[in-house]
Amino acid sequence: DLGTSIFVDSELIGVRIRFKDAVLFDKGSAVLKQDAIRILSDMAPLFKSYGEMIKVEGHTDSDPIRSALYPSNWELSTARAVNVVKFFVVDVPEEYRISPDLMQAAGYGEYHPIAENTSEENKTKNRRIEVVVLRKSSNLR
């Protein structure tokens, strides 16, 4: 059910779309799932139409990752953000590709939680990707 997995919020800096990590990635992975490719493909025309700077932020919970590929949550969150950016710049159909100069990727690891990492429910909230379509007044180039 995507209704509880994707959240949209209008903020002073722009529109923030928050994806629970399980929507886009398997646990401990930065490879986009097939459902994620479909969801992001459906959103690409909308993002392209804005013509504004888009920032993709990766976040994790505070549980240490034990992976040779991602030695820390910081690297996992950054890899996830970069892979979402790459998808919009390279992998979508050409007419919906977003110019690389309008894209930013940031990996925050566990350092910007939206809930305390004290329960599995809260940790699930913290594992997320946020796509922020920045308003013109907040574009930081």
Characterize the structure shown.
- The chain has 141 residues and is of the alpha+beta class.
- The chain is built from four helices and five strands; from the N terminus they run ββααβαβαβ.
- It has helices at residues 21-24, 34-50, 73-91, 120-126, and strands at 6-10, 14-20, 54-59, 103-107, 128-134.
- A five-stranded mixed β-sheet has the order 1-2-5-3-4.
- The longest helix is centred in the middle third of the chain and has 19 residues, at 73-91.
- The chain is globular and about 40 Å long.
- The model has no long low-confidence stretch (mean pLDDT 93).
- Topology as a string of helices (H) and strands (E): EEHHEHEHE
**Rg from Cα:** 14 Å
DSSP helix fraction: 25-40%
* Low-confidence spans: none
State the total count of DSSP E strands.
Answer: 5
* Inertia-based shape: globular
Structural class: alpha+beta
Summarize the helices and strands and which ones pair or pack.
Layout: E1 6-10, E2 14-20, H1 21-24, H2 34-50, E3 54-59, H3 73-91, E4 103-107, H4 120-126, E5 128-134
Parallel strand pairs: 3-4
Antiparallel strand pairs: 1-2, 2-5, 3-5
